[in-house]
């Protein structure tokens, strides 16, 4: 997807950045104007993913420009290229809405990476706005009627407006980031965009600078001051994905942020205070990492003030038709296509599939199927290229229990089995509780009581 960038008074670097960007996954589409006034006119009449503005300028100061941008489009990230700027300038401009401050002759590769980060920030801001427009309802971000996902939504509503840090567990692709966005959207911090960091995507030295920022000369290549993600998330929420992959050396600095609400930029001894709520996520067992000496136990307790797990898609089959309809509609809109139908035969195949990659795999499969279906108005089973060995096993095998070496929670496991049985019965009866009770040789009142005790309320009918 192309990133739309407005460059103000920066002709010299545009060509170099475009040449670099076209070799990458997300080339920028540049528009260029010479003056601040012309730039503000463009911002007023168009939507951009980022603005790159050069200073000093005869047309105004950084502060004046940022103030005007905030009035026109508060979610628009502004990258400032300054001939000379100190750390104090970078911090002040960041608090006024500036996204990043670079040297005026910054390397094109660096500018390209900053623009990509700015576009991601813009996407986060747009998601937050959409959530607020939908009155912040968790179900706008977490789709499903199954007891499993409704339990998650109830948990989010319970904790969203608290200050407690949250740890979200679950397999890859289950929607942990969407749960984090729902928490943020319903919190008192939802007026600012959530800042997301993939802790497993960067080596230790780069991750530290990404999280906490750095001062000029802190290390080789640190040619300007950088405001880190924690500082960008001040008065908002930071989402630390794959928290289990954070190198041990950085964990002590993370612990200090959580305990003292302050940190030091790389290369500086000056403390920076922040008001940040931390939501983290992991697809690994942190207890195992603690036993292996790879994760600090004190950090775990700071992160794990409130914890819940995102259910795997195979454990919520009754939600698959809703997700299929949602993603089909979404992809068709993105591609500018008429809405394609999903016949019963296709839906049945998708519902019976095991989805080892969970919701992310389902969304990708639908996108691929729509591309392969051509001009046909319907999606056929053959449009979905799904590995046959990943199909869901028979129900009896699906309920097989394995006791891991580190043990399991007996009551929680039994509840999960009961939940799966009830979901399958409700799915077969299209949510009719009386028919589901008959299917399970239960009284309707018994089934209703079990649903209530497990926290299940959605997706059933009388």
Question: What would you note in describing this structure?
Answer:
- The protein is of the alpha/beta class and 462 residues long.
- It has four domains: 3-122, Rossmann fold, CATH 3.40.50.2300; 134-309, P-loop containing nucleotide triphosphate hydrolases (Rossmann fold), CATH 3.40.50.300; 313-390, Helicase, Ruva Protein, domain 3, CATH 1.10.8.60; 395-453, Homeodomain-like (Arc Repressor Mutant, subunit A).
- It is 45% helix and 13% strand.
- It has 19 helices and twelve strands.
- A five-stranded parallel beta sheet has the order 2-1-3-4-5.
- Helix 6 packs parallel to helix 7, helix 10 (248-260) crosses helix 12 (297-303) and helix 18 (433-439) crosses helix 19 (444-453).
- It is globular and about 80 Å long.
- 37% of the residues are buried.
Write a concise keyword list for the protein shown above.
five-stranded parallel beta sheet; 13% strand; Helicase, Ruva Protein, domain 3; 4 domains; Rossmann fold; 12 strands
Summarize, please.
With 462 residues, the chain is of the alpha/beta class. Helix content is 45%, strand content 13%. The chain contains 19 helices and twelve strands.
